[in-house]
Design goal:
With 250 residues, this protein is of the alpha/beta class. It is built from ten helices and nine strands. It has helices at 13-19, 25-34, 50-55, 69-73, 112-122, 141-154, 163-167, 193-200, 204-213, 219-229, and strands at residues 40-44, 61-66, 81-85, 98-104, 123-134, 178-180, 187-191, 236-240, 242-248. The strands form two sheets. The chain has a seven-stranded mixed β-sheet with strand order 3-2-1-4-5-9-6, with helices on both faces. It has a two-stranded antiparallel sheet with strand order 7-8. Strand 4 (98-104), helix 5 and strand 5 form a beta-alpha-beta unit. Helix 1 (13-19) runs antiparallel to helix 8 (193-200). It is globular, with a radius of gyration of 18 Å.
């Protein structure tokens, strides 16, 4: 029996769009270069379309599919992007139509047997599939200590079990394509303190913690974070470990 859709993010769609980090432009440029053509690309589990719109700078048309109507209705618009409310395992797109298929911070939610079958169905000869994920970010040693305690000690049992695949950079998931070694890309941002708190609010474990306990996990560390940050108007550099598994679709 396949997985059922676990909607961890519809209620957070506005915050997700506002606070989630952006992927490096060089990554999309590289994906377009390794694809056989730049005619059509598909972003599976697209959420509010951050990666979808970035692909549109390199492909004639890009399809973004997500099973959450709330995410799609809040997705970033673009003249070359077409959004569809659909599961990644059954996109409804024509057979042999895509030069590139990606799943950005989404592969761990899919029914992989069905999804990989769908990837093969929609792919053109020589097309590329790429799974992209990023783990726990880093700031300063003082902030990192508090954030790691929030991530592991306070929220550890509230993360969905699939989260372990993100922490492993997707190396624990099956990948049935001939792998292409990607370059190293830096995923960074400059944040104010309020953006940090907004980003933490998008964590699925924070929502689950509130549902189960009635409390706000972020409030339990907010004062420590504020003290470790210093001037809340000061920006700090945030960095994520970015992992990409890419392969030629056979």
């Amino acid at each position: 029996m396949g997985k059922t859709f676990k909607d961890h993010f519809s209620q957070l769609a506005d915050a997700y769009r506002a606070f989630r980090p952006e992927y490096p432009e060089e990554m999309f440029r590289w994906l377009a270069r390794v694809a056989p053509r730049q005619d059509s690309a598909l972003d599976c589990g697209c959420g509010t379309g951050q990666a979808t719109v970035a692909l549109a700078r390199y492909f004639r048309v890009v399809y973004g599919v997500d099973p959450s109507a709330e995410q799609i209705v809040r997705a970033v618009g673009h003249e070359r992007v077409r959004y569809l409310v659909a599961p990644a395992e059954a996109t409804g797109l024509p057979e042999g139509s895509q030069d590139l298929v990606i799943a950005a911070q989404a592969l761990h939610w899919f029914d992989l047997e069905r999804f990989y079958g769908e990837v093969r169905r929609v792919a053109r000869p020589g097309a590329v599939f790429a799974a992209i994920t990023y783990g726990l970010f880093t700031l300063t040693p003082e902030l990192d200590r508090v954030l790691f305690r929030l991530y592991r000690d306070i929220l550890g049992s509230y993360w969905p079990p699939e989260r372990r695949h993100v922490d492993a950079g997707y190396r624990t998931l099956p990948f049935p394509f001939a792998e292409i070694e990607p370059p190293e890309f830096a995923m960074t941002a400059e944040w104010h303190f309020d953006h940090l708190i907004g980003y933490l609010s998008t964590w699925s474990a924070v929502k689950e913690y509130t549902v189960r306990t009635g409390n706000d996990a972020i409030l339990s560390v907010a004062e420590e974070l504020r003290d470790a940050w210093g001037d809340p108007g000061e920006t700090k550099r945030v960095a994520w470990p970015l992992s990409i598994r890419a392969g030629r679709i056979d």
